[in-house]
């Protein structure tokens, strides 16, 4: 399809997600996002892209130390949670300059009205109106354009599936809208972007917090994941709100968020056992103890790994740098293609009729451009509608012969005249004669892409 094929398996499902680096990860982040994403990445037919959305963090956090600390903590959390950086492409958004570059291209095709409808922006406006201040008070352009940067994150790697919280579904719809618009404007029958889909894990997406509302930093009801050690975990669990039934009294397990948190860690049989014990009067204190122990089984060894990583930030840095290299292996050639598509091209490829040149439009507005080379011989090129050169003819001493060859090619389709040579080249063969040399590609996948363009041009 596009250049992705050179570094990932074309038939695999590409799963991508990011976490904004503005806080310390808590149990809810782990259960709702990190753990399921890592599990998904272990499947053999998945290519996973996990990243730290640190440009997104700048939108809502103006405390540089907090951003720096959060990037480290979140990176260490992914790794301690079991992410295999050799399998997964694991990187920081800000290490891939192609992402903000794409974000700008997408910004230029996104209707302002679409962004006006974004929930996060609208909520801020509503708050301002309620406060009686000007509607855009304190709202920066980062917040306004947030969904476009997110679309760039996703479209850059042509992700099929994007695991996110329910609050992000609108952003995925917007990413699709924007992708479609770009494809329509610049694709000319070829889709640059696939349509991404949100994946919302219904059962785990919202872990309840200490007070029973969704566990979230903004409600101040979180259970810390690694920071503060087992002690902090214990102290948070002791604050879980329960009803006032004492030991010996039967408890309604399903209505208690303590039990819901337990369920997120326990095997079904273990959960059923605790449920029974609660119904038979287990005290809340004992239940909290059991919860702590159960979380500790899964998180204890990971916490050690986390502490070790946090003590060696240089190791994490190296992993992320390697991840950025992997990501850019995809992003750089893809961006090159997109630059071509929108018209940001090397000037020497811009075909324009000069004196002594004649231009003949063919196919989907592709064109043959004839010219005289440095030695005075007659040649012609076939260019796509976007001005990308597809092939260049051999030199002809006689301009009529060059013209006749060009004309003959116009009655052919690409498939009848293309002959592949090596992995990255091709020739144009007419009546057994090589009449032109195809442009050499960087890879066989890139050549496929060029040939697709040639087929359109010669239609
Ligand atoms: N907006 C996401 C959140 O707050 C984070 C994010 C940024 C993201 N870019 C993304 C998630 C791309 C998935 C894909 O949760």
Describe what you observe in this structure.
- This protein is of the alpha/beta class and 459 residues long.
- The chain has 3 domains: 2-110 and 145-204 and 312-341, Rossmann fold (3-Layer(aba) Sandwich), CATH 3.40.50; 217-297, Tyrosyl-Transfer RNA Synthetase, CATH 1.10.240; 347-457, Roll (PH-domain like).
- The chain has 16 helices and 12 strands.
- The strands form 3 sheets. Strands 6-7-8-9-12-11-10 form a 7-stranded antiparallel sheet.
- Helix 8 (169-186) links the parallel strand 4 (161-163) and strand 5.
- The chain is elongated, with a radius of gyration of 29 Å.
- The two termini are 19 Å apart.
- Tryptophan binds at residues 16-18, 20, 53, 56, 150, 153-154, 162, 164-165, 168.
Which properties best describe this structure?
Tyrosyl-Transfer RNA Synthetase, 7-stranded antiparallel sheet, 12 strands, alpha/beta, binds tryptophan, 459 residues, PH-domain like, 3 domains, disordered N terminus, 3-stranded parallel sheet, Rossmann fold
Beta-strand percentage?
Answer: 5-15%
DSSP summary: helix tally? 16
Estimate the helix proportion, in percent: 40-55%
Q: How would you characterize the largest beta sheet?
A: 7 strands, antiparallel
CATH-assigned fold name of the largest domain:
Rossmann fold
* Extended strand count: 12
From the spread of the alpha carbons, the general shape counts as elongated
CATH superfamily of the largest domain: HUPs
Each distinct ligand = tryptophan
Order of the strands making up the biggest sheet: 6-7-8-9-12-11-10
Terminal residue distance: 19 Å
Oligomer: single chain
- Poorly predicted spans: 1-7
- The averaged pLDDT comes out at 91
Radius of gyration: 29 Å
How many separate domains?
3
CATH class of the largest domain: Alpha Beta
The ordered H/E elements are EHEHHEHHHHEHEHHHHHEEEEHHEEEH
CATH architecture of the largest domain: 3-Layer(aba) Sandwich
Overall SS class: alpha/beta
